[in-house]
């Protein structure tokens, strides 16, 4: 057991050893005691280091902190307590940290946060509490923290989000709530987050998404909803997400999709819908996705595709359709996909894949190869030659 004490910063350990870090300097700006096996901090440990702005105490063995341990550090900007054994924090431990910008508390054992934790930290920009045992968050814990840009609460045990939790975070850019136990979202949970770019909700227990839930997040670029229990998504759930580029919906329990579900996400580049139970699509499902580059529908229950499903997806480069029940003739779909580079059709109910399917294709825009992965576990690489005829080469998959 080691204790960090005031004066010469001597860590006195139970085994009789000690380590002198450095002498006391009143004008020092940064202190690092990362990975020093420190079990305890004396309440006056930092009393002669008032000017410190960056304090690194990560990867030690701290279980508790004195309530006034940081009171002398009124210019502290960065505090890292990652990888300790903290189970709770004193209610007013940051009362004097009016300049605090970065607070890192990941990989501790914290179960709850006091509602007064941030009453005097209006300058806070980054708060990370990943991999703890947090099961609830006070409704107004972030009240007044309008400078927050990054909140990471993933890998905890949260079951719900208070409706007004983020009402002050109008400048928030990244919010991660991944791998919790959140059961339900209400329409106003994210309504104040007008500048949000990334929202991670994957790995929860969500069963549905209400209409308009993200309509205020007009700058959102990335939305992760995979590995939930979604059985339905209301029409309008993605309304106003005109800038969204990446959407993850795989590993859910979706059976069908509203025809207009993706009509607002006109800038979408990557859409992942694999590992659901989708049995049918309409000609309108992807009709507004003119910038779509990657579409993954692997491991669903599709037995057919509408005849002009991809009519407006002329920038699509990767199309994954493996592990469905398709019996389609792929030729008619290729005419709408001039940019296609890879199509995966493994584990469907296709008849023998014939070269004529490609040799008769009149496209001239395909100047590089397409990798067609068939149910026979072989690559068919198709090149468009100057004669505008397809030539097929076979390569056996070895992995």
Can you walk me through this structure?
The strands form 3 sheets. The protein has a 17-stranded mixed sheet, with no helix packed on it. Strands 3-2-1-5 form a 4-stranded mixed sheet, with no helix packed on it. It contains 2 helices and 23 strands. Among the domains are: 69 residues, no CATH class; 121 residues, Ribonuclease Inhibitor (Leucine-rich repeat, LRR (right-handed beta-alpha superhelix)), CATH 3.80.10. By secondary structure, it is mainly beta. It starts with a strand and ends with a strand. The chain is elongated, with a radius of gyration of 27 Å.
The fourth-level CATH homologous superfamily of the domain at 279-399 is Ribonuclease Inhibitor
CATH topology of the domain at 279-399: Leucine-rich repeat, LRR (right-handed beta-alpha superhelix)
**Low-pLDDT regions:** 8-22, 359-370, 375-399
What's the number of helices? 2
Name the beta content range.
15-25%
- Sheet bearing the most strands, described? 17 strands, mixed
* CATH architecture annotation name of the domain at 279-399: Alpha-Beta Horseshoe
Straight-line N-to-C gap:
50 Å
Helix amount:
under 10%
Mean pLDDT across all residues, rounded? 86
Q: What series of H and E elements makes up the topology?
A: EEEEEEEEEEEEEEEEEEEHEHEEE
How many E-type strands? 23
Shape: elongated
What is the radius of gyration computed over CA atoms, rounded to a whole number of angstroms? Answer: 27 Å
**Given this structure, which CATH class of the domain at 279-399 is correct?**
Alpha Beta
Q: Which secondary-structure class do the elements indicate? A: mainly beta
